[in-house]
């Protein structure tokens, strides 16, 4: 089993490759704009000048708006997750990513943030599921292939990336 960091980078790159087919202005680890005195209501917000979410793509959720993604792969049997149900662990990790990026991306970048949370057992959180269903739909339309075929390939690709 690979460590989470390598899996996250591979998932980031697979996702960017697919986004390039259906969106504009796709970037991997795009730097966020420097802050000019903005304050955020959560102290866990990422205020670093070098803050970089994993992906950005224009036109994913809406035509002229940037969508920003940040990946996390977690181990459900790790001590920090063991006492929680899988659903609760997903919510916890999605919330942590949102606390880190959502307000800054909304208020400074004027974009939309989506946390992409997957587990080493091969499943994904609610927001990742919605994201990848939309991505599969856009790719299927663009390639004129059945949605089920694209979604099946995408799920297998992500699962193998996490598990290898």
Topology summary:
Elements (H helix, E strand, L loop, with lengths): L3 H19 L1 E5 L26 E4 L7 E9 L4 H4 L3 H24 L2 E8 L6 H18 L3 H17 L1
Parallel strand pairs: 3-4
Antiparallel strand pairs: 1-2, 2-3
- Give average pLDDT, whole number: 91
Going across the biggest sheet, name each strand in turn.
1-2-3-4
Number of helices: 5
Structural class: alpha+beta
Order of helices and strands: HEEEHHEHH
**What is the straight-line distance between the termini?**
5 Å
Q: What's the assembly state of these chains?
A: single chain
Shape: globular
Strand content: 15-25%
Any idea what the radius of gyration is? Answer: 16 Å
| Total beta strand runs | 4
Low-confidence stretches: none
- Secondary structure: helix percent: 40-55%
Major sheet size, sense and barrel closure: 4 strands, mixed
Explain what the structure shows.
With 164 residues, this protein is α+β, with helices and mostly antiparallel strands. It has 5 helices and 4 strands, in the order αβββααβαα. It has a 4-stranded mixed sheet. Helix 1 packs parallel to helix 4, helix 1 runs antiparallel to helix 5 and helix 4 packs across helix 5. It is globular and about 50 Å long. The relative contact order is 0.18.
Quick recap:
The chain has 164 residues and is α+β, with helices and mostly antiparallel strands. The chain has helices spanning 4-22, 79-82, 86-109, 126-143, 147-163, and strands spanning 24-28, 55-58, 66-74, 112-119.
How would you describe this structure in keywords?
164 residues; alpha+beta; 4-stranded mixed beta sheet; 4 strands; 16% strand
């Amino acid at each position: 089993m690979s460590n989470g960091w390598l899996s996250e980078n591979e998932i980031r790159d697979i996702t960017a490759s697919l986004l390039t087919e259906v969106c504009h202005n796709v970037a991997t680890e795009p730097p966020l704009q420097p802050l000019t005195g903005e304050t955020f209501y959560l102290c866990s917000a990422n205020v670093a000048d070098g803050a970089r979410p994993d992906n950005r793509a224009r036109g994913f959720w809406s035509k002229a708006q940037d969508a920003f993604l940040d990946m996390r792969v977690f181990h459900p049997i790790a001590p920090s997750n063991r006492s929680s149900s899988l659903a609760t662990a997903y919510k916890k990790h999605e919330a942590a990513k949102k606390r880190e990026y959502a307000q800054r991306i909304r208020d400074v970048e004027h974009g939309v943030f989506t946390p992409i949370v997957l587990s080493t057992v091969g499943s994904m959180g609610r927001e990742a599921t919605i994201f990848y269903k939309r991505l599969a739909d856009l790719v299927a339309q663009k390639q004129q292939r059945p949605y089920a075929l694209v979604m099946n390939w995408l799920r297998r690709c992500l699962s193998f990336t996490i598990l290898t």
